[in-house]
Amino acid sequence: MKKRKLLNETLVYYAKFGIVLLLLTVPLFYYLYDKHYAHEMDESLIGRKEAFIKNSLQSLRIEEIPVWNKFNDEDERILPDRHQCEENLFVVEYFQNEQEGKEALYRVLYSKIQIENQPYILMVKLNIHEARNIFRSAILFQFIMFVCLMFGFVLITRIVYKKIWQPFYLTLNQIEAFNIRENQVPQFPETFIREFSQLNNALEKLVSNNLQAYKVQKEFTENASHEMQTPLAIFQSKLDILIQQPHLSEEQLCIIQSFYDITSRLARMNKNLLLLAKMDNLQFMDKETLNIPQMLTDLLPFFEEQAESNNISLKADINPEDFSIQASKTLLESLLNNLITNAVRHNILNGSITVSFQNRCLTVENTGISKELDKTLLFRRFSRLSERTKGNGLGLAIVQQICLLNQWMIQYRYDNSKHQFSVLF
User: Fold this and answer.
1) Using alpha carbons only, what angle is made at residue 378 by residues 375 and 382, rounded to the nearest 5 degrees?
2) Are 379 and 398 a contacting pair, CB within 8 Å?
3) What is the SS3 assignment for 259?
4) From CA 110, how far away is CA 88, in angstroms rounded?
């Protein structure tokens, strides 16, 4: 969905309202003015008719009608009866204007009269051509004034908007520039607008609470890293001493080996949980320039040894292009390690792994269980999709969290009996 500024969104509604108002008011004004003007003209025509009846009709004879029409005002004529039904008929017609030498528009009254008991029609007309032109000019002027008014309204709104909303944008810039690792509450600008002041106060409380929570979580992560790793190291050293004791039975050695496995698993889980906690707390924001093909080339020998020990063939197809990104080296190494280790751990006997890097896309493809994995559980923490393999269910969750933190795209698909994970940088 296309995003628009608040001012532009507001002005769109103003423009729609202005257009609707213009389309309604101008025709309505024209209609009402025309009706009022026609009414005034009709009263004037009726007045002239009544004056004719009072001053001329009683003394006028039929034989005098041609002379009366010739010497009287051209706006009044006596015409033969046209079998008119209405007593007074008002129409708008064009007549030749002798003064201007062209046709002009007239408001005309045809009224029935009697001269010596014979029916005739009295025609009285008024020139409305000039009045119509003036009226159209007034409508045009009204339209221009309305457009200027709307333009001025938009201009004033933009000026007032910039002044009134300036504290809001200053607050927005402060929030965008806020870095939780600096452990400092932004100084929001003072404003006389109550709503913006309430917003600033709410943001100050929110940021302060988040800083306090971040500080507590960071301290917990650092303390947990130290407090949990120390007992595990001591426990493992005690196992080393115990296994060196003479006269241990085979059963006792098996028990000690199981303790080793559990200790290693606890150490990995502790390391992974601390890594996730640090990523959630944004403690890996320091970035450097890293060359992914070179890092893959350096790491692959270690994974080849792991694959060979499990009778798995590992192939690499890495384009030696000079492709570098800005990222945390610790997180990128963790992503590569988890993806390839996951492919080794969840593989089958005499299986295969293919690691490729082409066109900014890292792909790890491996054989495994012959069905597609549940995508709803794939990246969930502590979700183990197979009970046959050992693991704590955090590897793919770490991979996804790293991708989210760096805005990389990770995809999974099952094709040709192979599981494929792709990361687009």
Assistant:
1) 145
2) no
3) helix
4) 6
Tell me the helix, strand and coil percentages in the chain, rounded to 5.
Answer: 55, 20, 25
Q: What is the pLDDT of residues 112-167, one digit of tens each?
A: 988 888 899 999 988 887 777 777 787 788 788 888 888 888 888 788 777 888 88
Strand ranges of the sheet holding 76-80, from the earlier edge strand across to the other edge: 76-80, 118-127, 102-115, 88-97
Report residue 226 as tokens.
């130290």
What is the homologous superfamily of the domain 288-424 according to CATH?
Histidine kinase-like ATPase, C-terminal domain (3.30.565.10)
Cα distance from N-terminal residue to C-terminal residue, the chain: 25
Classify residue 227 as exposed, middle or buried by CB count within 10 Å of its CB (0-12, 13-18, 19+). exposed
Strand partners for 106: 93, 127
Gap between the Cα atoms of 124 and 74, Å rounded: 9
d(CA 407, CA 413): 20
Sketch the domain layout of the chain as residue ranges: 6-159, 195-280, 288-424
Q: Quick check: helix, strand or coil at residue 150?
A: helix
Check if the beta carbon of residue 239 is closer than 8 Å to that of residue 256: yes
Rounded to two decimals, the pTM is: 0.49
Separation between Cα atoms, residue 294 and residue 303, nearest integer Å: 15
pLDDT of residue 365: 93
For residue 280 the two structure tokens come to 């959630």
Whole-number Cα distances in Å, 417 to 252, 355, 412, 420: 42, 16, 13, 10
* Per-residue pLDDT tens digits for 67-97: 888 887 778 888 888 888 888 888 888 887 7
> What local confidence, expressed as pLDDT, does residue 233 receive?
78
Contact 65, 56 (CB under 8 A): no
Residue whose C-alpha is closest to residue 318's, from 335, 330, 331, 336: 336
